[in-house]
Every structure is written in C-alpha cells, then in structure tokens.
Backbone:
C-alpha cells in the first residue's frame, strides 16, 4: 500500500500504486496517477491530469499546472512522466495545449535539475539530463541522451537531437542536430559531442565518421542540400550520419550555424 503522511493532501480519485510514498505538505490532485515505488517529497504539488511512472523521485516542484499560453481555454490536456525520473527542487512542468498535441511528456530515466521549466507540449526523450535553471519553451523536442547545460534558454519549437550536448548559459534559437555540440548566445555548432559519445559507448570509427561528415555538411561553401548529398555519398554506410542528414533535412526552424 501507499504511505501518505497525515500532513499531505491526496484528493479523492487520485491513484497511488503500491509502494508510493507521499511526504508532508505534498498535494496530489484527483486526476493524478502515480506509479509503483515513486516518492513524492515535501512540498510537491501535482495537479491536473498527470500520469507518473514507477520509481520516480519528485522534490518540491509543481507538475501539471495550466500552460502559460494565452490560447489555452481550459482544454483537457495532460502531462505524462516515465519511469525512473528524478525531478529536483522547484521544477515546473505545464500541461499540453490542444494546438500542440495536448501532451507534455518526459521520458524514462530523465534528470531535471533544480529550477528547470518545462513548458506546454514539450517532449523530452529517455535518459536526457537537463541542468539547473534551464528554461524550455513550448513545443520543444529533446532527444534521447541529450544533455542541456545550466542557465540555457531554448526557443519554442526548437528540436535538439539525440546524444547532443548544449553548453551552459546558451540561447538556443534553432535546431541542434543529433550527436553534435552547441553552445553560446546565440548557440553555434562547435563540432561532434565526442566526450558524450565516448561515454555512451560509440566506437572510434563512428565518432571519426561523424566528425568527417560534420566538416562536409557545415564547414564547406556548398549549399546545404548539396553538402548533405555529398555526406551521404561519402559516409552513407554510417547510421549516425544518415540520422544526422535526415534531421537537418527535416528542420523547420533551421539549424544553428557552425
């Protein structure tokens, strides 16, 4: 059974799975579902339609609050949080909007450090790390294993690819492709995220190939479409290069300059 402290408020209708712990002064609304083994720590507020997975730890944060979008008129939208997620102090996660798919989603094994803001309709992939005071605007997509350095602001509708790294105190106004490193205000591509890829077990050959493809795509004087074609001709056997090229081709906001 769940363990709910007498000084916590759990509204009728909330669903707490086995092993859930709710500490004092936490609030859980009537449409919240909390998975097995999750700990809701002192002062956390979870309201609206929210589903939280198993074995999460939620500190004094505010989850499921209405979006800060003037177009929002009370539509029935939601937040979905995966398994093994750690949400540190004073994080805000807003519900989705009808115009953006209606769901704000955080994947499995994500770490959101203190003061992170996750706006409406944001999608964060699995195993991402978002450092302190990162501000994520609406409709942003962050890929699996991406790392976002502290004090960074991310413009609405930006995509950050899997295994990408954004350096601290950056202002990200355009897309950051997978496997690359970006930093600065405004953010610029610095090259391949070599340290991150090594930590994730990518081979030296894969990293060298990505580095060569980066030079072809972003450091040549050719138009971007021709550079992408040449990268595929030279490195098309690499699944990472194919994914990089596909990401760039599908970009709507444009890619951060190199």
Residues:
């Amino acid at each position: 059974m769940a363990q709910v402290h007498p000084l916590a408020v759990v509204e009728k209708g909330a669903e707490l799975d086995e092993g859930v712990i709710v500490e004092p002064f936490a609030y859980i609304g009537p449409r919240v579902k909390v998975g097995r083994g999750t700990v809701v720590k002192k002062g956390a507020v979870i309201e609206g339609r929210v589903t939280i997975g198993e074995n999460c730890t939620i500190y004094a944060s505010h989850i499921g609050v209405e979006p800060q979008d003037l177009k929002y008129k009370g539509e029935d939208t939601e937040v979905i949080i995966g398994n093994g997620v750690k949400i540190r102090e004073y994080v805000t996660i807003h519900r989705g909007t009808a115009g953006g798919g209606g769901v704000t989603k955080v994947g499995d094994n994500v770490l959101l450090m203190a003061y992170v803001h996750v706006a409406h309709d944001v999608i964060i992939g699995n195993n991402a790390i978002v450092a302190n005071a990162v501000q994520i605007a609406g409709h942003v997509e962050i890929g699996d294993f991406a790392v976002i350095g502290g004090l960074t602001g991310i413009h609405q509708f930006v995509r950050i690819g899997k295994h990408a790294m954004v350096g601290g105190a950056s202002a990200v106004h355009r897309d950051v492709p997978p496997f690359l490193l970006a930093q600065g205000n405004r953010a610029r591509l610095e090259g391949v995220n070599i340290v991150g890829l090594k930590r994730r077990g990518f081979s030296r050959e894969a990293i060298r190939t990505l580095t060569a493809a980066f030079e072809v795509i972003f450091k040549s004087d050719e138009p971007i479409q021709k550079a992408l074609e040449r990268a595929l001709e030279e490195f098309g056997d690499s699944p990472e290069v194919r994914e990089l090229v596909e990401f760039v081709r599908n970009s709507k906001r444009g890619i951060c300059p190199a």
